[in-house]
Amino acid sequence: KFVLRLSSPRSISPKVNRLKLPRLSEFLEIIQARIPDGIISNTIANLELCEKAYGFSKKLPRAIISHGLPLGTAPRSRPLEATEPNIFFLGRMESRKGFDILAAAWPLVLESVPEATLSVAGDDLACREGPSFFEWAIRDLPFGARKRLNYLGRVTPEHRERLYKDCAVFVMPSRYESFGLVLLEAMRYGKPVVSCFTGGIPEVVSNNNTGLLVPPEDPHALACALVTLLQSPELRWKFGENALIDLQKRFTLERVALQTEEFYRHLTIDHEGMI
């Protein structure tokens, strides 16, 4: 059986050609969408978006199966210890990831927490507005805000783990995410998350429980959420504990594997009457 696992449709990504013509990847996605025996999506929101983009048959079996991580023994800070007020962002330097929104919020954060630092990791991509997306995003940052920002570019898995471990808050102000696997990575380290009410993110981060969600494209709301967590070690610890519990309940590799096996079994029985 051919099962299509959905990710963010290419049609929602900004196009680089001036005529806004469909890309070859979009045509390939549409062709793939015409031939599966079943559909798996990581979130309800992404399934609904893909249904509009591809026009799936209403008769196609479908399932919502999230991503998962191995639990392992990720190190984390001890309860309420004096954690440095460091914010960590991990993502490609592109419009969809919303780093420019974070850059606009950063001076507002420093007004309330002047000792805060921002660690940024991820590939820098080309940008029509400037030499690179990162440089364009920070173009208006005052000198003091730039000094408190550390751009690391691409990092090794070991370095990324240290960044998760050492941060007080993880932030992902995306304009759209079908899921956001980095959210699970932060949760695995018991870190509170600040992200946005968009795409599948509210199905991963429980607002006011495992993190804080704000409207996308709102630097002021983003800054307020970051300041709230930076100024409250107790709240950070509470959200981090809740995140670990939620990860163990909903986002393990074992749970994903069992759900996937069950869906394939269901497809085989329904279409062939046997396993």
Write the layout of secondary structure elements.
Blueprint: E1 3-6, H1 24-32, E2 38-41, H2 44-54, E3 62-64, E4 86-90, H3 99-112, E5 117-121, H4 133-137, H5 143-147, E6 149-153, H6 157-166, E7 169-172, H7 181-188, E8 193-196, E9 211-214, H8 219-230, H9 233-250, H10 253-272
Parallel strand pairs: 1-2, 2-3, 4-5, 4-7, 5-6, 7-8, 8-9
Describe what you observe in this structure:
This protein has 275 residues and is α/β, with parallel strands linked by helices. Helices cover 41% and strands 14% of the residues. The chain has a six-stranded parallel β-sheet with strand order 6-5-4-7-8-9, with helices on both faces.
A few lines on this structure:
The protein has 275 residues and is an alpha/beta fold.
How far apart the termini lie comes to: 12 Å
State the helicity in percent bands. 40-55%
Oligomer: single chain
Number of helices: 10
Q: Can you write the helix and strand succession as a string?
A: EHEHEEHEHHEHEHEEHHH
Question: Any descriptors?
Answer:
41% helix, 275 residues, globular, 3-stranded parallel sheet
